[in-house]
Structure to design on (314 residues):
């Protein structure tokens, strides 16, 4: 009788693991947006372009250049979050473009109009960002000293991962990023009433195997300290998906990096005062460019003072 009970228990575990495995692979293949926002809806003159080839795949992007007499212009590369597309961040692109930045808004693979691959992950978002950055930095009309990356959610975590291994960015902006994949997965498991021990722990180790990375190696609380350019974290105070404590944890682990945190009224997708938030982002980007040309007049303390003057409006 005890042998039958043990066998039944093992079969139940196998079935549960199979269901979880199916759910994980389904979750690692995000649903594409049917109709994303178009640049023309915001009065932006954009060119639809394709970046890269197979493998790993071709990426769709909106390229929004600046019509100016300047020989070279600053550029911002925008990376959406899970299930988003290049249109998701077009309101931010509009504000950046009006401020004089050329903008490249990309669809990560498995998103929007880009090619498919077997799964998506935060490191693959970072890889796609690197491919987009390679495209813009190869252009003769771009100022190589004023290249920025801005990402949202998973894209925000990917921006930090990418920036931690390169030294050619003027600054990065990470919006609504999680602090650690393990924490994010634990919240996901809790929402589905899956106990962390032992099943949830096994699930997370399986995800690490699928994506080819240990969570600790890609966690923003660990990558942020390796970033050499200024970093701006922006997070909604009422974010139910990634609580604001994640942003505070990233900020607390900055080490020698130059990291500023702005907490604004809003949730994971929207801020109540978007115009004020974008003013803060633009002030940060301008200050970062100034620090690149006059490093003795800037630094983390200087950026904090510059932003504190207007932060009360957010």
């Amino acid at each position: 009788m005890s042998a039958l009970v043990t066998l039944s228990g093992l079969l139940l575990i196998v079935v549960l693991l199979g269901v979880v495995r199916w759910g994980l692979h389904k979750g690692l293949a995000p649903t594409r947006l049917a109709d994303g926002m178009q640049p023309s809806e915001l009065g932006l003159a954009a060119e639809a372009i394709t970046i890269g080839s197979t493998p790993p795949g071709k990426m769709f992007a909106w390229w929004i250049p600046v019509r100016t007499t300047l020989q070279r212009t600053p550029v911002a590369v925008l990376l959406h979050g899970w299930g988003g597309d290049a249109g998701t961040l077009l309101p931010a692109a509009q504000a950046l473009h009006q401020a004089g930045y050329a903008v490249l808004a990309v669809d990560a693979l498995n998103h929007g109009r880009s090619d498919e691959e077997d799964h998506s992950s935060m490191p693959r978002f970072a890889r796609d960002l690197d491919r987009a950055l390679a495209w813009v930095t190869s252009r003769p009309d771009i100022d190589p000293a004023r290249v920025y990356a801005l990402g949202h959610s998973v894209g925000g975590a990917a921006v930090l991962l990418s920036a931690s291994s390169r030294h050619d960015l003027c600054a990065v902006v990470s919006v609504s990023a999680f602090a650690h994949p393990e924490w994010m997965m634990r919240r996901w498991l809790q929402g589905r009433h899956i106990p962390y021990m032992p099943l949830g722990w096994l699930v997370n180790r399986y995800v690490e195997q699928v994506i080819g990375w240990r969570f600790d190696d890609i966690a923003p609380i660990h990558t942020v300290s390796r970033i050499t350019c200024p970093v701006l974290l922006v997070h909604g105070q009422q974010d139910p998906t990634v609580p604001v404590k994640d942003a505070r944890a990233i900020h607390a682990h900055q080490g020698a990096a130059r990291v500023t945190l702005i907490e604004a009224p809003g949730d994971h997708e929207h801020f109540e005062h978007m115009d004020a938030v974008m003013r803060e982002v633009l002030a940060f980007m301008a200050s970062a460019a100034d620090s690149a040309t006059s490093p003795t007049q800037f630094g983390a303390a200087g950026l904090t003072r510059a932003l504190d003057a207007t932060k009360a409006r957010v």
The chain has a mean pLDDT of 88.
